[in-house]
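Review this chain:
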Amino acid sequence: MPRAFTPKVITANALIEGDVIYYTSDDTWSRQLSEAEFLTDEAHAQLRLLDAQQQASEVVGAYLADAKAGENGPEPTHFREEFRRTGPSNYFHGKQAEL
């Protein structure tokens, strides 16, 4: 029996910079998870993923990541996505310094 669809966001890495980015409802990419399009319908999520994957000149490795609704927009449900969102943990810099 297939698993029930859970809410998702589309994430990838920026082709040039390598930053983690999220696909928004207005077909742009954002470095803020809170701006990502929150997808609750499986068919719509698959169509949006196809749109995102066709932007090979901007992104690499687009995929659907589990998310939950939060006060300020989508939030990660898995530690991997939380780690990607906050950046490397080897020393305090970049995204970690900004938070």
